[in-house]
Write a sequence for this structure.
């Protein structure tokens, strides 16, 4: 039922993109007032062109100003940091992340407390799959923001998680919960759970999984409900798993997934009868895969309902020509005392493969029908196919004995007594055959 449950999340990229859009056009609105008049004029022109999606023209205005700016003689830096920031924004909108990174790096080099530049630099580095560096930039953006922006701290943790720096991600997520408890968004729990899982801190993840499972909606909720049920099982919380599975089937009775989940929980608790009931409901709601049919067939067989079991096995065999399924069909036929039907299925299996177990089965059916000569032949064939042929030798010996072929029976019993599990029965048979009653039939000594 349960697939691999934690994969790298695509929601981070979407969220980072939204964050960028809210920053790049308005980020320097407050600090712009302190910039030189010439810088403000250039930024205004650039913004106007940017709003019209004339990105290259906007870049030209900024480049021209930078080229003409002689800079500060004391710092030996040309142009204002907001010019670099604005150029980075244009490159970012154009998808030229490498050029954008260069511009943002110039910006923070000139003014390293400028949070928006760190945030947009983080965005670019994330797009370039530089997740660890992106996390560092998001963290810088958070540290330099006033008031502190909890989203920046969340994205820092998510970026470190993407870089497989999960201990650091956990530290940042836990700091987020501590410092911004009232501002944490429900979906942010997904990032925290992912980091906890990566660090194998499954119990610590459990309360956040619960929150997601109970408060989300739609497909996302169903996914977290499945994860929660799986976690209860994997943490050996059988009572909680059973209670939750029952709750899910009661609340969503038409959802096959939860009936199957309840069946697996009951199997874990060794309640085969309850598992069969749940999986039978599941079979009414959804077309079964061969493995599922086989499982329900096995449960019916274990609960002594061979007729139902037989139907499931036959259905499986139609889709999967497997001699192991034939063996199960034969067992069902025998429990229903239908030896003739059992023989038909054994022959069907032997046409696929001369399997030792099937040969033994045919020998047993013929033995029960008192057709000893034929039974002996199949036990002989089985002895050639089986890794441990002691039982085949023993049964062949009895068939030969009852067919009054005493010398041959003695030879086979001698072979059977070499095997631990058949040794006692074989020795007893040899003692009997060596008695006075059978002396006239023996031509050579035991």
């Amino acid at each position: 039922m349960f697939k691999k449950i934690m994969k790298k999340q695509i929601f981070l990229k979407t969220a980072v993109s939204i964050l960028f859009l809210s920053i790049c056009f308005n980020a320097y609105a407050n600090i712009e007032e302190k910039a030189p008049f010439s810088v403000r004029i250039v930024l205004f022109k650039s913004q106007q062109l940017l709003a019209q999606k004339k990105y290259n023209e906007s870049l030209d205005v900024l480049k021209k100003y930078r080229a003409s700016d002689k800079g500060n003689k004391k710092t030996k830096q040309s142009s204002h940091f907001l010019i670099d920031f604005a150029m980075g924004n244009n490159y970012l909108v154009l998808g030229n992340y490498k050029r954008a990174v260069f511009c943002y790096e110039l910006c923070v080099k000139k003014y390293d407390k400028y949070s928006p530049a760190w945030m947009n630099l983080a965005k670019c580095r994330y797009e370039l799959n530089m997740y660890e560096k992106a996390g560092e930039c998001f963290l810088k953006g958070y540290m330099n923001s006033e008031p502190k922006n909890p989203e920046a701290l969340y994205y820092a943790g998510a970026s470190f998680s993407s870089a497989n720096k999960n201990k650091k991600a956990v530290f940042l997520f836990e700091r987020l919960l501590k410092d911004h408890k009232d501002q944490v968004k429900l979906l942010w729990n997904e990032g925290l759970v992912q980091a906890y899982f990566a660090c194998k801190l499954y119990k610590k993840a459990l309360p956040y999984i619960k929150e997601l499972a109970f408060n989300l909606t739609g497909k996302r909720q169903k996914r977290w409900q499945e994860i929660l049920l799986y976690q209860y099982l994997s943490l050996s919380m059988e009572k909680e798993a059973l209670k939750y599975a029952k709750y899910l089937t009661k609340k969503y009775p038409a959802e096959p997934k939860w009936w199957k989940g309840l069946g697996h929980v009951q199997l874990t608790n060794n309640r085969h009868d309850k598992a069969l009931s749940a999986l039978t409901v599941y079979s009414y709601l959804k077309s079964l895969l061969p493995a599922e049919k086989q499982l329900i067939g096995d449960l019916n067989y274990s609960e002594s309902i061979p007729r139902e079991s037989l139907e499931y096995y036959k259905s499986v065999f139609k889709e999967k020509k497997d001699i192991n399924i034939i063996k199960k069909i034969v067992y069902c036929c025998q429990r229903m005392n239908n030896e003739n039907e059992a023989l038909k299925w054994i022959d069907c299996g032997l046409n696929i493969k001369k399997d030792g177990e099937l040969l033994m089965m045919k020998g047993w059916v013929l033995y029960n029908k008192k057709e000893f000569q034929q039974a002996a032949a199949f036990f002989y064939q089985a002895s050639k196919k089986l890794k441990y042929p002691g039982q085949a030798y023993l049964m062949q010996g009895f068939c030969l004995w009852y067919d009054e072929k005493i010398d041959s029976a003695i030879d086979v019993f001698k072979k059977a007594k070499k095997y631990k599990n058949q040794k006692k029965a074989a020795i007893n048979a040899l003692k009997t055959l060596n008695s006075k009653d059978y002396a006239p039939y023996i031509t050579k000594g035991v």
Notes: The radius of gyration is 38 Å.
